[in-house]
Amino acid sequence: MKNVWFKIEAMSAMRVALVNDYEVVAQGFLGMLRSYRDVLQVVEMDLRHNVSQPVDVTLYDTFAALQGDGEDVRQLAANPLAGKVVVYSWNLDPALVEAAFANGASAYLSKGLPARELVAALEAVHRGERPALAPERGAPQPVGGDWPGREEGLTPREAEVLALITQGLGNVEISERTHLSVNSVKTFIRSCYRRIGVTNRSQAILWGVEHGFRPDRGRIRLDEAGREPA
Amino acid sequence: MKNVWFKIEAMSAMRVALVNDYEVVAQGFLGMLRSYRDVLQVVEMDLRHNVSQPVDVTLYDTFAALQGDGEDVRQLAANPLAGKVVVYSWNLDPALVEAAFANGASAYLSKGLPARELVAALEAVHRGERPALAPERGAPQPVGGDWPGREEGLTPREAEVLALITQGLGNVEISERTHLSVNSVKTFIRSCYRRIGVTNRSQAILWGVEHGFRPDRGRIRLDEAGREPA
DNA sequence: CCTTTCTTCACCCCAAGGGGTGAAGAACGT
DNA sequence: ACGTTCTTCACCCCTTGGGGTGAAGAAAGG
């Protein structure tokens, strides 16, 4: 019933690429949209690569990555294959949002959106609209999706800070990358270390290396059924 | 001619195991003794494992490992399969040598020994003697052998300190492990960082992870020709 | 409403790390 | 003998990291 409705409304499924350096994040996104394959087809997930085939929308997930104002989004926006570039973040600072638009992004979506609203927003983007940003109060809580360390009990922010530690960034660098105060970064480091049972950075890095916190590399292409080829 | 002489003198080749956590080190040892296969047969190299088959002599290389006074040598000495335990180190501090003997080691050999003298010393050990330690002045320069980072230009000590950094140890811990002053450790860290082009520990750890400085794991058994089975 | 969790931030204080300088001895090569 | 490299150590000074305490707001659940 629902499938039929969407089929009438859309001539063909929108083609989407997801860009983020952590396969867990990419796979989590894929899982979240599993029910929407008739309207939205994730055809590619890029890990440290730019988009390689024509898509309608590229979703750039900022987890442990440069924000919307950085080089990555600029390059995506300049890539004719990438279609509309959407920054997908839980950092909703208006200044950052504006900077992302100035950097070539077509939309900026909160990671707090439930899947249904996310899909609707992506469709609006595809139609050339600029959907609202909601939720707008407080920091969004991720709905669906996945991140490294989730099974070990890390919160999204703890995971992101640990991922950046595992990339070798110092506290001030992480502060700049995430647009958080260095005090906030230290707080996340403290809670993260307690959670994973380490007491210094060296141990944290080694823990991260062994638990999927190193950026992955590669490109995952999906077939029409949303599966990775054998 | 030489082979015949040794064959008359020794009823069969002495069986030797090498214990160290870095495969490069183990392989370097093997290469150094390649010419002495008729008198000395390296039958096993153990990476983070105790000896698994009966050997006459176990050579414990202290590179980035506990010294002769530590738990590893104690366990080897207690292992009936290990035969005579020989500590093979470039740290010739008399107190440490004594402690190694008290810990169950049968001999303590300098890594500065050329291959020929090393083999002769091992034979003496096998016969029940306790060979002299030479060279006795200064720190021995390694003759033959191999260590991680050698191709990148790291000195043996720089490599050892980096290996311990990559294991997550702090400066004071490394100082204790190596029996060096913490000032010496800092000096090696400085020179090492300059050599590999990093400026902080995080980068050093990641460099180490990517360049073979993480302890390896496994056991390599060699056949009579000194080759690893296919 | 209260509790819990997550997020964000400030401030205090101390430990650990890192860059610099200098010194000395041993070994090796010219 | 001199120069170079490796090793070992000391000391100075500053930066970075980490543990603690406290505060506040938002969201979710009972």
Structural features, described:
The structure is a homodimer of 230-residue chains. With 230 residues, chain A is α/β, with parallel strands linked by helices. Chain A folds into two domains: 2-142 and 215-221, Response regulator (Rossmann fold), CATH 3.40.50; 156-210, Arc Repressor Mutant, subunit A. Helix content of chain A is 40%, strand content 14%. Chain A has helices at residues 2-9, 23-32, 71-78, 94-102, 115-126, 156-166, 171-178, 182-196, 201-210, and strands at residues 14-19, 40-47, 57-61, 84-89, 107-110, 218-221. Chain A has a six-stranded mixed beta sheet, sandwiched between helices. In chain A, helix 6 packs across helix 8 and helix 7 packs across helix 8 (182-196). The first copy, chain A, starts with a helix and ends in a 9-residue tail after the last strand. The model of chain A is unreliable at 1-11 (pLDDT under 50). Chains A and B meet through helix 9 of A and helix 9 of B. The first copy, chain A, binds a DNA duplex (30 and 30 nucleotides) through residues 137-139, 141, 155-158, 170-172, 180-184, 186-191, 193, 199-201.
